[in-house]
């Protein structure tokens, strides 16, 4: 059975992809192709690059259990410098480097190029200048993921073909139209903006939350026009897009959706065989 898998964007909520990838491993299944945007591009790249769902879970917990361990990883194991991660283009323009962030976040021993991944992989980004969706299936993996996770005003993408790129979710937040197979599975982690009780959201929270609203609406429209065979939306609305240090809680919240995905896949297997 050939399975096409699409992994959507949603910031820290994208960590919920990892338990659902474990569902494939536990059933002895592997997607025949993966398409991902934003956080889905990063997680999808790690999985397509040969890591199991369990290995990704362990990597994420090791990296994100607390800020001290993350700092040790960034400035110790990865030997990064602040100047590598941040770029100052002007008095009011401080950006995180998307390609460097991808390098820091991905596990070790990854393929250097997209075409060398164990599972065919498509990375979705957006050409800001041409206002077009860009689908990358060849080229440098870190460059592609860095372009897909580029949040406007916060994370800067590497230039591709001389053009500025931004988050793939701006055009296609759950890119299931770029995969095919006997079964197409889409994982939507956009959720809804998390409201903080008696606290005014920061400018970054408002900006990213506004993007998530747009992602959510776009995903619903695309799903209504051409629904995939299996569409899973983990219940992660209780987490903000920056809640990366709540990795264990996000994993726990995704467990019911993992079980739902396993049941849906088992039903499809029985129907086909």
Verbal overview:
- There is one protein chain.
- With 273 residues, the protein is an alpha/beta fold.
- Helices cover 41% and strands 16% of the residues.
- It is built from nine helices and ten strands.
- Strand 1 (3-7), helix 1 (17-26) and strand 2 (33-37) form a beta-alpha-beta unit.
- The longest helix has 26 residues, at 247-272.
- 45% of the residues are buried.
Number of strands: 10
The share of residues in helices is 40-55%
Label the structural class: alpha/beta
Average pLDDT works out at 86
Number of helices: 9
* Backbone shape: globular
Segments where pLDDT lies below 50 for 5+ residues?
Answer: 90-94
Keywords, separated by commas or semicolons:
single chain; 273 residues; alpha/beta; 7-stranded mixed beta sheet; 9 helices; 10 strands; globular
In short:
Helix content is 41%, strand content 16%.
Write the layout of secondary structure elements.
Elements: E1 3-7, H1 17-26, E2 33-37, H2 39-48, H3 53-64, H4 67-77, H5 82-85, E3 86-90, E4 93-97, H6 98-105, E5 121-127, E6 132-136, H7 141-148, E7 155-156, E8 165-167, E9 183-187, H8 203-225, E10 230-232, H9 247-272
Parallel strand pairs: 1-2, 1-9, 2-5, 4-7, 9-10
Antiparallel strand pairs: 3-4, 5-6, 5-8
């Amino acid at each position: 059975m050939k399975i096409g898998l699409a992994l959507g964007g949603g910031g820290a909520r994208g960590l919920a992809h990892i338990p659902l990838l474990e569902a494939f491993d536990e059933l002895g299944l592997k997607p025949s192709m993966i398409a991902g945007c934003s956080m889905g591009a990063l997680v999808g790249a790690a999985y397509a690059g040969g890591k199991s769902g369990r290995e990704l879970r362990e990597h994420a917990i090791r990296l994100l259990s607390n800020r001290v361990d993350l700092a040790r990883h960034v400035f110790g194991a990865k030997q990064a410098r602040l100047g590598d991660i941040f770029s100052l283009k002007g008095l009011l323009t401080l950006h995180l480097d998307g390609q460097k962030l991808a390098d820091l976040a991905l596990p070790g021993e990854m393929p250097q190029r997209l075409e060398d991944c164990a599972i065919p992989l498509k990375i979705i980004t957006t050409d800001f200048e041409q206002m077009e969706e860009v689908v990358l299936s060849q080229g440098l993996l870190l460059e592609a993921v860095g372009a897909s996770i580029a949040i406007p005003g916060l994370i800067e993408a590497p230039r591709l073909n001389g053009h500025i790129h931004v988050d793939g979710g701006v055009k296609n937040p759950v890119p299931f139209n770029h995969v095919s197979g006997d079964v197409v599975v889409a994982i939507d982690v956009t959720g809804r903006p998390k409201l903080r009780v008696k606290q005014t959201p920061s400018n970054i929270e408002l900006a990213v939350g506004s993007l998530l609203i747009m992602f959510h609406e776009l995903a619903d429209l695309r799903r209504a026009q051409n629904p995939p065979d299996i569409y899973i939306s983990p219940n992660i609305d209780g987490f903000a897009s920056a809640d990366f240090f709540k990795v264990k809680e996000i994993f726990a919240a995704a467990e019911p959706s993992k079980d739902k995905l396993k049941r849906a896949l088992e039903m499809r297997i029985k129907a086909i065989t």
